[in-house]
Write a structure and sequence with these properties.
Blueprint (H helix, E strand, L loop, with lengths): L4 H8 L4 H12 L2 H16 L4 E5 L3 E5 L3 E7 L3 E6 L22 E6 L6 H18 L1
Helix pairs in contact: 2-3, 3-4
Length: about 140
């Protein structure tokens, strides 16, 4: 992702990762911001102990005993990339991107799509369980 002027200003002021994610959501001001906010809420509901980070010049990342997933925003999608997604069971078929890799799996969410919130929360919990088993 391209670094924006607001990224630089916020980082220079020592904003927390959570504040930087809040700013990104507000900055997007469209369906992507709304979806990123919803995904973030679901991650926090699935794992109240999740740690938020801000990496790679503007990517929200969620951790618990290792990386759970990222929340990238592009022109036409919000992408959730699960660091160890290939090792997770996905009975609801949420993964629809990066399916050929040996490690990661992703969920591309397009404008107007609804996410299966229960299945997403189960996937987050499964990722945390996997991280804990290897911690």
């Amino acid at each position: 992702m391209k670094k924006t002027k607001s990224d630089s200003k916020n980082e220079k002021r020592g904003s927390s990762p959570s504040q930087l994610i809040d700013a990104r959501i507000k900055e997007l001001s469209d369906w992507r911001g709304e979806m990123l906010a919803r995904v973030r809420t679901l991650i926090k509901q699935a794992d109240p102990e999740v740690i938020e980070e801000w990496k790679w010049r503007g990517v929200p990342v969620w951790y618990h005993d290792g990386m759970i997933c990222t929340g990238e925003t592009y022109k036409n999608i919000v992408k959730m990339t699960f660091a160890k997604g290939a090792a997770l069971k996905d009975p609801s078929g949420l993964f629809n991107s990066s399916l050929d890799g040996n490690t990661r799996r992703a969920i591309d969410i397009h404008e107007g799509e609804k996410i299966d919130e229960k299945a997403l929360m189960a996937l987050v919990r499964a990722a945390v369980t996997l991280n804990r088993s290897k911690a």
